Amino acid sequence: xxxxxxxxxxxxxxxxxxxxxxxxxxxxxxxxxxxxxxxxxxxxxxxxxxxxxxxxxxxxxxxxxxxxxxxxxxxxxxxxxxxxxxxxxxxxxxxxxxxxxxxxxxxxxxxxxxxxxxxxxxxxxxxxxxxxxxxxxxxxxxxxxxxxxxxxxxxxxxxxxxxxxxxxxxxx
Length: 172
What we know:
By secondary structure, this protein is α+β, with helices and mostly antiparallel strands. The protein contains six helices and nine strands. The protein has one domain (17-171): Glutaredoxin. The strands form two sheets. A seven-stranded mixed beta sheet has the order 2-1-5-4-3-8-9. Strands 6-7 form a two-stranded antiparallel ribbon. Helix 4 links the parallel strand 4 (82-87) and strand 5. The longest helix is centred in the middle third of the chain and has 13 residues, at 58-70. It starts with 16 loop residues before the first strand and ends with a helix. Belongs to the peroxiredoxin family. Prx5 subfamily.
């Protein structure tokens, strides 16, 4: 169901916004869902991003998020400023899932509620046959100042190249 060409290494991230549930008010962020412009968030930073089909789904909860939580210190030691998890869920679900995964203050759990950003990346997927509608493909990428430097997209149903270990090895 991809509607645009898939993003590639060397491409700038598309314009878009993501929502995050903020637990504690600070600065310009109020408690609750806050919407952020991707270009603003990535400017001048190195971001490890991983996308996945859905919060609370088996592989995502048992392997994908826990891997990035476990290797977060190593990723940051290798130059990563922030780690983002992007899923086609709302900010409330992503916030609750982040708490459940013990990812709070480690991985930013970013909601792409209508799959707009996933579509703009060309990494959307139709999971309608499973009753889940349009979702994100499973992937990881390293983004430096808004430009994709590494990109690892899984083949359908696989979990082999978008894990934290692969992205960490690519940083070496």
